[in-house]
Amino acid sequence: MQTFDPIEYKKMVKQYQEDNKPLDWFDTIYKNANGDYKKVFWADLEASPYLINWLKNNKINKQAPKAIVIGCGVGDDAEALSDFGFEVTAFDISPTAIELCKKRYPNTKVDYLVANLFEYDKSWLKNFDLVYECNTIQVLPGDYRIKARVAISNLLTIGGYVLVSCRSREENKNLTDIPLPLDKKEINQFVQSDGLEEISFLAYDDNQTPSVPHFFAVYKRVK
Description:
Blueprint: H1 6-18, H2 26-31, H3 49-57, E1 66-70, H4 76-83, E2 87-92, H5 95-104, E3 111-114, E4 128-134, H6 142-153, E5 156-167, H7 184-187, H8 189-192, E6 197-205, E7 213-220
Parallel strand pairs: 1-2, 1-4, 2-3, 4-5
Antiparallel strand pairs: 5-7, 6-7
């Protein structure tokens, strides 16, 4: 795929999922950009306005609080967190994505790393004040979604926040979509299964035509 073809993209992802290799296709997307981060089709090339709004209105009272970005892509959200005073670790399973980040931000303070959400360093456990998850769970199938959610929750220190940004859908609808958006029941598992506390929850439609429904949820580890 030298240019983005949504049909071919979905076919590719489906095949990897059926082969039980649901993590092996990500690097392909970044390699197809041929070194130009602007050609990564899913990159917005700006930090999430919902993330920025949350950062403007919420303060973590620590000296240099720690943040981690899941599947950081080409780095926009990670750089925003750094600009707001966080010590940021940002990782992606795609080596090419990390190369693009380092090329794009040669003077960055962010620690960009190649890492796997399911096999991250044990020193990361319960070590971050803020975890930012954007659109990772929705591209995974089946039990991988549960494992991803648990792995994300386990990064939070006591008093830490996880911000979850994703596409949304009604329960029992669009079950074969790729990516498969989260429904309210699934995202609620951050509370019901992982023991986090819901701080805020926003359901909204974006400005695309046609509009796409999303969730932006904030959860806190209280114990």
